[in-house]
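Input.
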Amino acid sequence: MTDLIDLCLALPSPTATATTTIPGFDWSAVHKASWGLFWTRVRPCRGGLFSLAESCDRDSVPVFLLPIFEDGQAVDLVAWRPGKPSRWRRLRGDADMLGADQAFDADFMRQPLKVYSTPQDWLVAGGGGCCPLTDAALLRLVRAESLVVDTKHLGERFESAFRSTWPEVLMEVKTSRGRAAA
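Output.
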């Protein structure tokens, strides 16, 4: 979507802002992972979405903004606040995973898939693997050969999501008198 790329290109890059620092954040990894990470202000909206805001908007918050690509096309944007990488929002809600192409490739090749818990962690790691942005994205990974998660919390989210997709198994065992035993 050209409009998303044009929108991002009009924003300042955080690498050009000397005051933008995050402990443990390797800016060189950003350039390996994607074509750009941006710095702007957004207004949080319902449903985990955001809208772009003017700098004078009192309800806006400063965020990092990253395009989400699928099949080589920018399909959405994800934003998170500096210092709060585990809480993000999307512009449109059209994409639910960073690295969806890598997730598909790992599934197709029957290889382990590295899964990151936040967009920031995914960037710091160089953009390999994927970062599910919704619970629906977790469920899309149920067919993976194996998942290598970066945090215990993410592993627990997967266990919870996958458990809900498995059918409940009830066993009814008949006794010699023909009654069901629990």
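The two ends are 57 Å apart (CA to CA).
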